[in-house]
């Protein structure tokens, strides 16, 4: 059994907090609607945990009524940091769940094949993540707009979500993060702490995160493809 | 006076060599036509050097007849590696040219403002490059599909073109590359050799390189914007 944990508890600071970016309409549905629907339709996903801000839950409940959903879902409240929200989401998964697929609510363009491939890799090896090779040259800046070093990009990948784990692996990794009191920008970083290797699964299609309203045109284009 | 050097001498190995990717049609014009037209229309650009493969020059000549060009241009033949093509292009710039803007022919979506900003920065500080902050988490792979290390992305940028230089700066940098017999993936790397700092100019819009036919839909979308 696979539980999808959709992280939708961001504060949207970058969009001024006025409109939650997840509820911006694109291709006839809010961003988060596309994300949710994609996981709901995936044949390997058995249930969905949606991590939301407490003050936004009513909007999500309303949304759920308007989506053609088939899988059981529940809401859980997020924490201060993304890792707190993820931890809350994982705890809410049903006990029989062996695989946890964590996904950013703001990545509505993820495709079924990438979800499948990340789940299969996590089943076999414990942890996986959707990723893309970095194709342009990479430079380290001095923090003031000047290049200080060329970075060899040969083995560099950018990672997105889903980030998929065996339930015991991510449980142990998140516990290590909490015990050590550190901050991680993504869930695979937590695996480093416990010596768990993570398989890179090349995304079949662009899988950007909506961070500003200007991203919507591109996302709309991708959803049409 | 600014010379734009458009590098259009790639071998297109990744597209099977059958159709030169630069001549794929998008929004009613070959990819390279959009690139050329954009530099031709830029108010600060005085002349254009197009670096081509010898066996493709006739196709470029034919293209030029069909474009609404206003600036003088000339063709020069490329070399074995990109850096050889760039060097040939720089040598072909007119002697009065103080600024050289090097651009990949396969980046047709570059906008006028980014070109202006890179030229202004190079005039002031000697060297600049169009760039984007890396927004997703970055991982180092072991070369066999597994993550071995998280890379702090705080100061990482991916760089595109234009890469713009004072003529004497890029001349000296390319000479250093040749003298040391090294290989550089982009022209700003050559500046490292001579201690010339390079200003990162954030691209106003997406500025991808067409490397496979599957990139065309996205490029078409961007050109429409």
What does this structure look like?
The structure is a homodimer of 225-residue chains. Helices cover 33% and strands 28% of the residues of chain A. Chain A has 225 residues and is α/β, with parallel strands linked by helices. The first copy, chain A, has one domain (2-218): Alpha-Beta Complex (Spore Coat Polysaccharide Biosynthesis Protein SpsA, Chain A), CATH 3.90.550.10. Chains A and B meet through strand 7, strand 8, strand 9, strand 10 and helix 6 of A and strand 7, strand 8, strand 9, strand 10 and helix 6 of B.
For the structure shown, list the relevant keywords:
homodimer; 225 residues; alpha/beta; Spore Coat Polysaccharide Biosynthesis Protein SpsA, Chain A; 7-stranded mixed beta sheet; two-stranded antiparallel ribbon; 7 helices; globular
Chain-averaged pLDDT of chain A: 93
Structural class of chain A: alpha/beta
Q: What fold name goes in the CATH topology slot of chain A?
A: Spore Coat Polysaccharide Biosynthesis Protein SpsA, Chain A
Mind telling me the CATH class of chain A?
Answer: Alpha Beta
Can you write the helix and strand succession of chain A as a string? EEEHEHEHEHEEEEHHEH
Architecture per CATH nomenclature, i.e. the level-2 architecture of chain A: Alpha-Beta Complex
Summarize the biggest pleated sheet of chain A: 7 strands, mixed
CATH superfamily of chain A, please?
Spore Coat Polysaccharide Biosynthesis Protein SpsA, Chain A
Structural domain count of chain A: 1
* Overall 3D shape of chain A: globular
**Helix amount of chain A, in percent?**
25-40%
């Amino acid at each position: 059994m696979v539980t999808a944990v959709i992280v939708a508890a961001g504060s949207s600071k970058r969009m001024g907090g006025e409109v939650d970016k997840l509820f911006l309409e694109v291709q006839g549905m809010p961003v988060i609607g596309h994300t949710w629907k994609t996981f709901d339709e995936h044949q390997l996903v058995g249930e969905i945990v949606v991590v939301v801000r407490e003050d936004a839950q009513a909007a999500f409940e309303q949304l759920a009524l308007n989506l053609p959903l088939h899988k059981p879902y529940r809401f859980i409240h997020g924490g201060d940091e993304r890792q707190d929200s993820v931890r809350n989401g994982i705890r809410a998964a049903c006990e029989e769940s062996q695989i946890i697929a964590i996904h950013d609510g703001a990545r509505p363009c993820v495709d079924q094949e990438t979800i499948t491939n990340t789940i299969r890799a996590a089943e076999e090896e414990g942890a996986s993540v959707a990723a893309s090779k970095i194709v342009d040259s990479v430079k380290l800046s001095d923090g003031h707009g000047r290049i200080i070093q060329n970075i060899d990009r040969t083995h560099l990948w950018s990672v997105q979500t889903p980030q998929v784990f065996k339930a015991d692996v991510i449980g142990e990794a998140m516990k290590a993060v909490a015990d050590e009191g550190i901050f991680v920008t993504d869930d695979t970083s937590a695996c480093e702490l416990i010596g768990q290797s993570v398989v890179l699964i090349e995304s079949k299609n662009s899988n950007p995160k909506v961070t500003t309203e200007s991203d919507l045109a591109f996302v709309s284009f991708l959803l049409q493809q």
